Amino acid sequence: MVAETLIQENHLQLKQIIEALGSVVVAFSGGIDSSLIAKVAHDSLGNRAIAVTATSPAYPLYEIEEAKKIASAIGIRHILIESNELDIAEFARNNTDRCYHCKMELFDKLKSIADELHIDHIACGTTVDDLSDYRPGMEAAKRLGVRSPLVEAGLTKTMVREISKMLGLPNWDKPSFACLSSRFPYGTEITGDRLSQVGMCETYLRQLGFKQFRVRYHGEVARIEVSVDELKRFMEDPSLREKIVKKFKEFGFTYVTMDLEGYRTGSMNEGLIRT
Question: What is the CATH number of domain 2-167?
Fold first, then answer.
């Protein structure tokens, strides 16, 4: 009962923050964080809340389709815009500030939509958990005045899921997803072909029933991360490993490896932390 009361209090606090915005464009990926903002914004602000999703080579088609379904379930007005980060030289070079340049372009486009529709604010789905990782995109949000209602309400990822479950959001337990550019070590150029290669590998793992995973690109090597509880499938099923290796080689990798630490967010930032 105490936990349920706390969830309700967290929801109320978030609702009050979003209501105070008056009107908002939500940077909507279809993930659980932006979905909760979209849900509460639509419930609180009605047609003064709009969700905007950017299509991109760095996002698989199934993620875009899922975003459309979630927006429809919420009932919020949903706008799709085109974005191609590969046209941004600083993004393609993939230096450590890659996400900053990507988010600057995205938020600038959202600002244009907000201005055109006379919407007062832009909101993104950053959570308190994100503050402990290296996230240069947050600097872009700060620079352009993008609000982070989940941070303002003091919500962690776990709290977001609990509130979302309470509100009946269908994706409350959806595994975390980040754009495919996060699969490349800093300094490795990001190209359309490489994004497609990684995307095909991850789509294949999804088709095999894996829930939480990443395929990290290391030139000829694909480094697979899956959640620790799914590692067992690889260890116990030689035929599964053979199928994955065969398919990944068809997609262009020479070597296929398994990361024994399992899936973890921001694993490409671990080199930065060590230095």
Answer: 3.40.50.620
